[in-house]
What does this fold into?
Amino acid sequence: MRKPAAVLFAFSATLLVTGCEYVRLLRPSVLRQLNPRVVRLVNELPEVDQPNEKMVARLFAHGGLGRAHQDADGVFRARVRVPSGQYIWEPAIIVMRHGGELELDFSNHDPFAYHAALLPSNGSREILMLPAHKRGTARMKLDGPGYYFFGCPVANHAGRGMLGLIIVSGDSPETAKLDRPKQKRPQRVEPVDVRRTE
Amino acid sequence: MIRRIAILLLLSACRTYPDYPVTERSQSMPELNARMRGTAPAVNVTAERIRAARTEPDNWMTYYGAYDGQRFSALDEINTGNVSRLRPAWQFQFAPIGVIPNPATYSFEAAPIVVDGVMYVSGWDGYVWCLDAATGELLWQYQHAIPLDTPMCCGNVNRGVAVANGRVFYATQNGYLVALDATTGKPVWQTGYADVRAGESATMAPLVVKNLVIAGASGGEYGVRGHLDAFDMATGARVWRRYTIPGPGEPGHETWTGDSWERGGGTTWITGTYDPELDLVYWGTGNPGPLFDDGPRKGANLYTNCVLALDPDDGSIRWHYQFTPDDVWDYDGVNENILFEEGGRKLLAHFDRNGYLYILDRTNGALVRVTQFGNSVTWGEVDSTGKVTSRLRPTREGTVICPGPAGAKEWPHAAYSPRTGLLYAPVIDACATFRLVPQPFREGMFYLAGDADVRPHPQSGAVKAIDPATGRQVWEWKGESPMVASMLATAGDLVFTGEPSGHFNAWHARTGELLWRFQTGNGIHSNPVTYRVNGKQYIAVPTGWGGWVEGFAPEMLGAPRGTALVVFALP
It folds into this structure.
């Protein structure tokens, strides 16, 4: 295969299997956020991502973001995996379009550690034990809007990277809204003046 | 090289994991507490029984103990003669788990409710616990999941629940009123009533009146439009909402300039009191927005910093009294309105943050008497007719003004003893440097337009006993730190409250002599209560330092943090 063709093939295949997330990178709203500090963060990740070297520098968002999809029964569902030897959730951020029931399906692919998930839910926090090479589910009720913490309560796995967020998008319930004209909200993306803050 | 990159790219996109069968299921925290019983004895609280709470001193049936807000108990087993022998009977402790909103400021502020030997108490981060009031055994627990980004004003706190008709009602920090089954702790209904996207949250204990649960909201720092809501106790359906800031065409709207009413504040974050005979609910309202700059809102700004006398059936305002018009000092008027009688007259006592004690005729809102109770009051003056003259205001350079933004008395409640005829108030003595920093409004962001820094100024406090008939101080006990816990008065002629140091104290109600103290180990910023089970009197005080400490006692910002409900009894 000629080189340009191979590159094109690889690029197209990647787009196919990742649901065009790379194309979505090109939206103006995303590009506006790629200020030098964010780009530096992405560039630095391979370096900080070395167990026993700079693991302390990990970010809890490091496992990336995934969307929970709503099934016909109204329940939002998503898979979360614990990869081997990294102390991360993959994804570490799970987004629900609005409040409701969420079922997370966890699997632990890490032979180095026994993990668990401590999860938010109306009624009580839920705990899901995740021995190595085991899989389990947790069902939660979240009203939102807002973001909720989850993490691994074993040893200090949370502090080493196994912190996650469940983001419930949307607005407050209609019964809560204030009777007043629509008010100005903060800009979603604040322009960053790098020179001033460096 | 390019081929290698292409293959790597492809591999990274296609990373797959082996699949395992689902063998694990999550469990709730209570399921993993093998010693928790899971159910509580049924208690039969009706609105009629709450109305007659004064006749049942064994119980602390509603937030203030009774509708009158006196925080007085007729129990006298523990009295001036034996209080020195008071000892801990049991403790209940609970710590935050995981990452919670405002982990630096959570505080245990509640007033436990006790009915027929069963205690219901709420905490930070959406918790409600049901306990055996004689032994401290945990019977059930509920936790509402609270988002990390809930726009709390100050602390991750909750001040208590209401119990009626087999249900426990409470407001979650993220603005839902929740009804739980009182025997199992399982949710029955929930209704969202505070808009977190607009900067609202909820911290107060709801009030049950007739068939309604009345609940106020927080958010005065975010330029919300304050309101009070009433819900059908059985279904959670809203029966009425009363905005505290009048819209166009409503009386009082003329006290706002332009569209400033839309962001007027006037929140309702402290529980009201109720006179069943007059059928009036008395509810305080908070500061206007923005806090420190009246530039955008010239005028008296009704109904901020008021007591509103409301018809509980429809929320209509029968009368109002405004304590601090055109406020630029954060002097919320939310403090309790204590209902008492003087020479057959139906009166109301209100210690305002602005440093003055108001005695009003509660039938019509007429001012009977106003006297200064705060030690340092320099913001302005209220004369004997109630006329307000403001003298010092925030400036761009900063102006020292007294009292500070928490006022001469913060939300922790005063008490009234019908035996001594005296009011007992926890007092803050602190000033602040008030600065003006004009700002635009953005929904969901702080709308302060300045700040008030207490740190450079000395801070202390006091417990003051005041005769409401004259406004005269009968005795004073000076505390090392600002006093920021509610008073409890009993028929044993004792008054109790806690200190930021963790000391829980009892004074002689008539002389102010300190008769007993116990170091609980943690600062107290809560509502102590008393009750009796099987003929034995108990005193319960939630301890757990936190909340808006930089506002009322920044010298104690580094004090130990913890949470325990400590319950005392005679041996």
User: Anything to note?
Assistant: The CA atoms of residues 7 and 13 of chain B lie 10 Å apart. The mean pLDDT of chain B is 96.
